[in-house]
Amino acid sequence: MPKKRSGGGLSPTQQAAKFLGVSVLAGAVLAGIALPAVGALGLAAKGSVESFDALPANLKTPPLSQRTSILDAEGGTIATVYSRDRTVVPLKEISPYMQKAIVAIEDSRFYEHGAVDLKGVLRALNKNARSGEVSEGASTLTQQYVKNVFVEEAGDDPTKVAQATQQTIGRKIRELKLAIQVEEELGKKKILENYLNITFFGQQAYGVEAASQRYFSKSAKDLEVQEAALLAGIVQSPSRYDPVNDEAEATKRRNVVLQRMAEVGDISQAEADKAKAAPLGLKVSRPKNGCITAVKGAGFFCDYVREVFLSDPVFGKTKEDRAKIWNQGGLTIRTTLDPQAQESVQQSIKDHVYTSDEVATAATIVEPGTGKIVGMGQSRPYGVDIKQGETTLNLSVDNDMGGGAGYQPGSTFKPIVAAAALEGGTPPTQSYSSPYEMEYPSPVAACGGKNWVNNEGAKLANENETEVGPYDMKEATALSVNTYYVQLISDIGICPVTQMADKMGVERANGNKLEQTPSIALGVTEVSPLTMASAYATFASRGMYCTPVAIESITQRIGNKSKSLEVPKSTCSRAMSETTADSISTLLKGVVEDGTGTEAGLDSRPSAGKTGTTDERFAAWFVGYTPNLAGAVWVGDPKHERKMVDITIGGVPHAKVFGGAVPGPIWRDMMSGALEGKPVDQFNLVDIPDSADKDKDKDKGRGNDDGNRDDGGNGDDGGDEGGGPGGVIGGLIDGGTGNGGNDGGWGNFIQGQGNGGNGIGGRRG
Asked: Peptide bond before 606: cis, by omega within 30 degrees of 0?
């Protein structure tokens, strides 16, 4: 029995014998093609020739995968992504030294022989027989190119890669025939160009241009002789001759190439000796691949762009088709991301929420009327190192686009209810009793002729016992009165609300339909910040909803040619009348001027928006807009475990978190920066008079958010509107450290301390 090495492989003698068999068969095949089947060689080769003739003669060369550049709206690079870091260049853009070096070391008779080098085969046979091992191969540069095509076609599939590189007689024969075809069709220069662009040079660099940039930070056309020799030497074994990790071994290999160049007459011996004495001269550029390299915190937006590409049928009928194009690369993707807006988003997030905080924030800005996403960021950094707080979960988008299950929007859903009511003919002066606490009205009309029935006597309440109606729509929206909005949805029915939500692009983050229940008015259905920003952009654009878009244009480069790809467009449709949208803007302008969102108001331009806080304070929101931009900010625990009570966020302690007190300032700062230097446009406001039955003499202190008037505006959490009876003596009793009482109730009754009276002397406004 033949002996094997301890490692389980073939012995040197067996390896030599195997190589001999393959080489003889190759010679036989060539003889059968070039000569009549005469004599012993011809007879022995006859069966092989017949099998050879049956092989397909066409080499299907897939487009070489290249890097993809993702750009912002102004053409700046956001990130570079690739499955193969490669930039295809023509032969004229490759240093002559590089061309000579690769030929000298890999196939010095390249310009003299055909697809198969019989002289090289015999030389290899002789050397391997004398050494007792396979120390020299006989593949020509053309054959190596064919093998690399097989590897490229295999992509990242390990099984296909193994099949493409397996050392079998069958594969060798197929490689030979295809090499002959390639020689006939392409010619030597084109084969050399293709080879230099396809081969792997280690360190994630495919092709000579990427390799030149990786090791020397220069273009392949500028390579000097010693640099070219180094790169040519790497090809035989990229791991063994890796100059980054083994400079000594790489230097020896480089010098072997230089000597070979001298031997074949490409350079003089003196030039070779001088180059051998030179240091490697590495100027390494580290591999930069993927959305983790994105600038200005745009990693999540970058990932969203990838998700759009892989999911939109405009890029291919199946996900496999789309993935193939993405992995092939060579794309220049110009996106909608505005660098000014993006930088402002990230700066505001950084200022208000730390990466180490127990909770996170996510923010998105879109452009009304176009659907363009101009900013997207979050406090948790993009990456895979969980210990460092990194994540690839995009908190701004739906589950199917790389996000999570979404978050309850709380009272930010109420304007959608108001829009449905106004669109259906309800006047904005509509008043309801709005008690502090009540049972859900029953039955309530739902879609499909069905009714929702409160069989279990479910109840709801406002934030504070002092919050008692009657209220009209203007005041109920400013104060975010829960019972008003439940009475409103019970009056108009659930179906108009869900239909309006659908027209505004509001869908659950997990893809399920909105539930047919009156509690939807209080924002119990989980949505994403991108969804809410796009929905509020409908109000800003006077009733036109536009689907969000992230891609402006794509250019695809295949080889040396480029073409434009079709990209998904925003679809705009009328969700409501201009009058309805303008009425909502009037209502929501009151929220930031005289309601729960005063901390979000912009000083330099008109703004409108709505606060939202969920039950038990797992999430807090501010969603708002100007005529130019719409944005949504969410703060909370993505795992829905940490209640935002007695918590420190961004270094600021909070007894309770409200939408106006944490998300509001984030929204204010990010929008201010995004809009700096932009035109100041005005809303088209409507006159909404106070309802006739409004009790102007009633003491109705205003709460922080969602009618939250407990603790006199909750002191350290901002006290946006002063609040109920808390903070009685100048804010000494629980509630004078925030903004106290803008226009508010009993906040800081005795003028007082701690910023206590931004209303009228801190007394009832």
From this structure: no
Q: Which helix (H) or strand (E) holds 364?
A: strand 360-366
Distance CA 206, CA 218 (A): 15
Using CA atoms of 394, 400, 404, 406 in order, give the dihedral in degrees to the nearest 10. 110
* Cα–Cα distance measured from residue 702 to residue 714, given in angstroms and rounded to the nearest whole number: 11
Cβ count within 10 A of residue 153: 15
* Cα→Cα distances 579→501, 533, 543, 673, Å: 18, 20, 8, 30
How confident is residue 151, by pLDDT bands cut at 50, 70 and 90? confident
List pLDDT tens digits, range 35-49. Answer: 333 333 333 344 444
Task: Give how far Cα 567 sits from Cα of 305, 309, 321, 550, Å.
Answer: 11, 9, 15, 10
Question: Which positions ≥6 away from 690 have C-beta within 8 Å?
Answer: 429, 472, 474, 475, 696
List, for residues 290-328, the tens digit of each pLDDT value: 898 899 999 999 999 999 999 999 999 999 899 989 988
367 touches 375 (CB < 8 A):
no
pLDDT bracket for residue 241 (50, 70, 90): very high
Start-end of H helices in 522-654: 529-540, 578-594
Which pair of tokens denotes residue 452? 């929702």
Which phi and psi (to 5°) does residue 620 adopt?
-135, 145
Tell how strand 561-565 and strand 471-472 pair up: unpaired
CA angle 162, 168, 174 (to 5 degrees): 95
3-state secondary structure of 724: coil
| Residue 159, Cβ density class (10 Å: 0-12 exposed, 13-18 middle, ≥19 buried) | exposed
CA distance 519 to 590: 24
Q: How far apart are CA 307 and CA 506, in angstroms?
A: 20
CA-to-CA dists, residue 680 to 236, 536, 627, 674, angstroms = 63, 19, 8, 12
C-alpha 539/C-alpha 416 separation (Å) is 10
Q: What is the mean pLDDT of residues 369-383?
A: 96
For residue 56, list its beta bridge partners. Answer: none
d(CA 634, CA 380): 13
Residues 6+ apart with CB under 8 A from 587: 415, 418, 428, 473, 474, 477, 478, 608, 688
Q: How many residues does the chain have?
A: 765
Q: Are 620 and 613 in contact (CB under 8 A)?
A: yes
CA distances from 41 to 28, 442, 589 (A): 7, 97, 94
Query: What are the residue ranges of helices labelled H in 595-646?
Result: none
Query: DSSP 3-state assignment of 211?
Result: helix
In this structure, how many other beta carbons lie within 10 angstroms of the beta carbon of residue 336?
Answer: 23
Helix ranges (H only) for 290-371 are 299-311, 319-328, 339-352
DSSP for 89-102, written as a single string: --GGGS-HHHHHHH
Residue 125's φ and ψ, nearest 5 degrees, are -60, -45
User: Maximum CA pair distance of the chain?
Assistant: 119
Is beta strand 373-378 parallel, antiparallel or unpaired with respect to 77-81?
Answer: unpaired
Q: What is this structure's pTM? A: 0.75
Question: How many of the other CB atoms lie within 10 Å of CB of 415?
Answer: 25
- d(Cα 207, Cα 421) in Å, to the nearest integer? 63
